Each structure stands twice: as C-alpha cells, then as structure tokens.
Amino acid sequence: MCRNSGWVDVEKEYVGFATLPNQVHRKSVKKGFDFTLMVAGESGLGKSTLVKSLFLTDLYKDRKLLNAEERINQTVEIIKHTVDIEEKGVKLKLTIVDTPGFGDAVNNMQSWKPIADYIDQQFEQYFRDESGLNRKNIQDNRVHCCLYFISPYGHGLRPVDTEFMKALHEKVNIVPVIAKADSLTPIEVKKLKERIRDEIELFGIKIYQFPECDSDEDDDFKQQDKELKESIPFAVIGSNTVVEARGQRVRGRLYPWGIVEVENQSHCDFVKLRNMLIRTHMQDLKDVTWDVHYENFRARCIQEMTRSVLFSTSYSEHSLNRISVNLVCITKM
Q1: How far is CA 102 from each of CA 42, 226, 283, rounded to the nearest angstrom?
Q2: Taking every annotated instance into account, which residue ranges of this chain make up the domain Septin-type G (predicted)?
C-alpha cells in the first residue's frame, strides 16, 4: 500500500499502545489479587455461614463453638483465616478477619477498641514496609471492607452498633447488613431498612459510598448500581444446605411453610451483596482503602514524625538532617 496513492500502511500507522490494557491484565493475573474482609457483629447472626455462602469455601472447619456462658465471658478476639481461591485462571488470596466475642458481653462499652487497634496495626505495618528499602514484595494485610451484621430482632440500630460504626467509619469501608432476613416479612424488612438508613444519617455514620456511574456506562450497569444503592443495608440469608425447589437443587432453608432460597433476589439481597463485593466493587473497596483510609493514617503518621523532630532537643544536627531526608522521601511516595 502506498501513501502517495492515498492508501495507508496499517502496520506502519499502528504504534501498539492499544495493547497496554492486555499487558496490565496479564501482569495482574500472573501476580494474583488479594482481598481482606472483616466480619463483625454479635454471635448467632450467621456470619460464618454467610462467608461460606459468598465464597463457596469453608474457612471455619476447625472452629470451636462456645456455649452461652462462655460467650458472655469471652473477650473480643481477632482471628484471621486465609485461603487461596482460583477461578478461571485468576488467583485470589482471600483473608477473612473474624471478631468473636464482639457484642456478646453484658457490658459492651468500647468492645470495638481491639478491632480498631487491629486495623491501625495493619496500616502501621504497611507504612513501615512502604518506608523501607524492599518495597517490591510488600504484603497487603490492610482491611478493605467490614461487613457489619445488624440483628433483625431489634427496631433499628442498638447503641453497640452505632458506637462500633462511628469508631471505625474513618478507618475502614463499612457495609451494613441485616442478618437472618428470613426471620422478617418483606414489609418488616423494608421498614427496618428505612429505620437503619435514617439512623445512619442521624448519627453521622459514614458507611461505604458507591461511586457514581460514568456517563458512558451502559444502562444495565447503571440500573444495577441504582439497585445496589437502594438495597443498603443488605438483607441477607446464608445457607450451605442444598434443597429441592421447583424441580431444581438450590441453596436455601427448608421451613414448614416453604423454602427460602439464598440466591433468589425476591427472597433476600444475597446476590446483590455478592455481586457488589466480588464482581463490581472489590477494586473500588481496595482503592478507597488506599486513597482515603490509609492516606489519612499515613498523613497523621508523617505529621507526628515531623512534630517529634521539630520539638526534639536530643537529636544531633546530622541525625536531624537524615530524618528530614527520610520524611521528604516518604511524602513523595
């Protein structure tokens, strides 16, 4: 093909940067992904069952079940479960952070503190690793999302719920869920959702905010995004039991009056929660963790380091210069 004759050699005109998304995709798939999900709420709300239903893997097979007296006397613990999942060649390192003992004591004042401390410790560890020399293989254990389970048996948020969310809403992405939604009628679910949304606004609680859709997004995605926003807090049911319904085998719960299907969107919000967590907003949850929660923590650390240097009289001039250089390097990351 000759340029003078009006024809263009396509190969010569093609630079090749259009393959960049494919390069990024290949590199990301090869490296794999990681995601840390925290689950919090009082015992008996089906947290472990829901996690098993979401990721189709049993992270709790070695768990010891406590009786009522043991739960009351139990202090808040932080327990990590990590599993490597692979689906269609894509690897995910999933970490579930469980918080047994939260909300079970007679006095739950500041029962959120060990949980907040844990989140800060992961930020602190990442900050130290990021400030070190070997930054290539940093392990990210920061908590990207916290599913907070709300009891269906109350009339809205309890004091322990509001205290927990207000204490952690600037540290982690909080996604509230109404547990065991099959214990409520559809009208009761609707009223409880409205009540919880009103109380979240009343108490100034900052839950995870879905990003606005871009103008060029297709209509189906915009509709899905609208439905997700309207579903907060998600009313969920968890079950790993397979039952027969309408001639099909489905995961659900069998009652004398009928069957509740976990993945039937007219029965609960399980599918919407799963889609949000895994299929549509997992990366955004990680981005908000990095750009908002971790950056706020990092800024506070740098301020404290700067203040300690400025007001310290115990450092030599050489040490102060070295610390100043380190601070400049950290702030440029």
Answers
A1: 6, 33, 28
A2: 31-304
Geometric angle at alpha carbon 18, from 16 and 23, rounded to 5°: 90
Structure-derived torsion over alpha carbons of residues 113, 63, 143, 35, reported in degrees to the nearest 10: 180
Distances from the Cα of 298 to the Cαs of 115, 122, 171, in angstroms?
A: 19, 12, 12
Per the CB < 8 A criterion, the answer to whether 213 and 228 are in contact is no
The C-alpha atoms of residue 121 and residue 144 are separated, in whole angstroms, by: 14
DSSP lists the bridge partners of residue 174 as 146
How do residues 210-236 score in pLDDT, each as one tens digit? 988 887 778 888 888 888 999 999 999
Q: CA 290 to CA 297: how far, in whole Å? A: 10
Please compute, for residue 270, the number of CA atoms within 13 A of its CA located in the half-sphere on the CB side: 29
Domains of the chain: 29-310 (3.40.50.300)
Q: Which of 161, 142, 141 is nearest to 150 (CA)?
A: 161
Specify the 3-state DSSP secondary structure of 85.
Answer: strand
pLDDT (tens digit, 9 = 90+) per residue, 311-322? Answer: 665 555 555 455
Identity of residue 287: D
161 contacts 178 by C-beta, under 8 angstroms = no
